[in-house]
Amino acid sequence: MLQKKWLITPLVAGALFFSPSAFAANTFPDVDGTKYEWASESIRSMVDKGVVNGYADGTFKPGKTITKAEFVHMFHKLFPEINHSSGNSSEFVDARKHWANKDFAAIFNGDYVWPYAESVGGKYPNYQFYVKPDKPLTRWDMMMIASVRTDYTNQTLHPEIEEVISAAAQYKDMKVREANYNDNFSAYYPVLYINKSGEEYSYDGDSQDQKAEAFYTLTKMGVLTADEGFLRPKAQVTRAEAVTLLQRLYKATTK
Q1: Which of 30, 94, 194, 234 is the most buried (most CB within 10 A)?
Q2: pLDDT of residue 26
Q3: Alpha-carbon span 5 to 72, nearest angstrom
């Protein structure tokens, strides 16, 4: 937790998730039909681009949830031009020996390590940053990681705080409130902490500006969408949902 003051092994999981499929994207038997019709084009596009593959049995498993590492790997495959690693290992302690080490290094090393850490240990100047690579990916996690792309393409919006509050009010489950000392200030925690003093608004705690800008930008772009007014920020992400967001992000940020 970042304060205001501050039954498969990972290797096997990675191998299963990215094992080659002998089937074309449009022949996955578990994608055919109406249940996943909304994701079929995105699945086909991402498979064709080599971002993700089906499984050895010919299925895609669109309803299978994924981890943060699996999504970061897909993100890196789709946007290889984003590379902050300089050939170094990940600056996240718990990603250095992970199968997705190179992916985390490319996407987050440097300026993105501190604000995108799940937790911080150690003492200045020897802080240790942790990202929880095997954490089940949530929709909010996915949104925050996607915002690295809009930063790269200079498309991140920088709204006034009042605009953020107004945008958040459109969703039934988007929380905006003042912080207290025991709150979780991680970029991955789906609450925007905003303080009002008189007529002036300010962000209340670390990473809140990054969170607000990611939320505002990606919802305005239509990359992250709601279902009947619910953004579902804490919901775990399926493979079908992940490739759908990546396809939208690719279209919105690639000329």
Answers
A1: 194
A2: 53
A3: 28
